[in-house]
Amino acid sequence: MEERKDIFKQLITFLGITIFISTGVFIWMFNDGEDNVAVILLMMCTPGIAAIITSLVHKDKISNYGWKPGKIKFLIYAYLFPLAVSIIAYGTAWFLGLTEFTTNQVVNYKWAKMLGFELPVPFIVGVLSKMTLGFLLTCLPVLGEEIGWSGFLTPKLLKIFSVPVTSLIVGLFWSVWHFPAIFGGFYGQGTPLWVALSGFTLVITGYSFIRTMLIEKSRSLWTGVVLHASGNIILMGMFWEMTVHKGFAAYIVSETGILTGIVCLISALIFIRIQSRKEICS
């Protein structure tokens, strides 16, 4: 009972600090700071900063965040999940003619040029360059955010709630935390708010279910880092860049697309169900 009370106190402190710092960051961003690298990095690091401050205030060990990588298979699951969702969601949209496929951006990726290739490159080279170099470089800023979500918040909630409840709490807070950026037009690809908010929340909640399950099994925040970075690079980046941005494409796919969100959430629930059955059978 005493531990439960202490966890609730830490959660309240964490949420309060996150909201306080985020408010200042978003005010800065809305005042011509959206192209400022410093403000973007600070926004991404806010959950991590809030987690560390919370742990210091409550004299909790930061070393308990799950710094070890855990079993490699869980990192692989985390990396491949956004790829699977992207193939299903974007592939369906392309196949049904709801959107159009293009290779223009992929063959001219800066990632391929950074690896020493002359542009344009073969399509597969462009894809692999972003899925490797782009992914690795994205992990660093993503770590600042995932220290908060994967290192602190999710493990704390798992001590008092089930995987589904923890996933919903983290997913909804994570989504709402991004809402000011959507209101400001930094997310959403120009779609109406009802589309952007709905699609984004579905995607983020789907990620949250996967992350919670992986963290519970691996005890590693790196599964959250890999999932987040892979999602940014593959689902929100590469596959959207392989889609012609016209008509209702942004309504259907992208980081705020309704179809993307539905596929992401359903895929996450199926994955959890499969993992749960494995536990029962073992």
Layout of secondary structure:
Layout: H1 2-30, H2 37-57, H3 72-95, H4 110-114, H5 123-158, H6 163-183, H7 193-218, H8 222-241, H9 249-252, H10 258-281
Helix pairs in contact: 1-2, 2-5, 3-7, 3-8, 3-10, 5-6, 5-7, 5-8, 6-7, 7-8, 7-10
Keyword list:
282 residues, mainly alpha, 10 helices, 0% strand, globular
What does this structure look like?
The protein contains ten helices and no strands. It has one domain. The protein is globular. 74% of the residues lie in helices and 0% in strands. Helix 5 (123-158) packs across helix 6 and helix 6 (163-183) runs antiparallel to helix 7. The protein is an all-alpha fold and 282 residues long. The chain has helices at 2-30, 37-57, 72-95, 110-114, 123-158, 163-183, 193-218, 222-241, 249-252, 258-281. The two termini are 32 Å apart.
Largest sheet: none
Number of strands: 0
Kindly report how far apart the N and C termini lie.
Answer: 32 Å
| Approximate shape | globular
Beta-strand content bin: under 5%
The string of secondary-structure elements, in order, is HHHHHHHHHH
How much helix is in the residues?
A: over 70%
- For the residues shown, what is the average pLDDT? 91
What's the number of helices?
A: 10
List the uncertain runs: none
Output the structural class.
mainly alpha
Count of structural domains: 1
Rg of Cα set = 19 Å
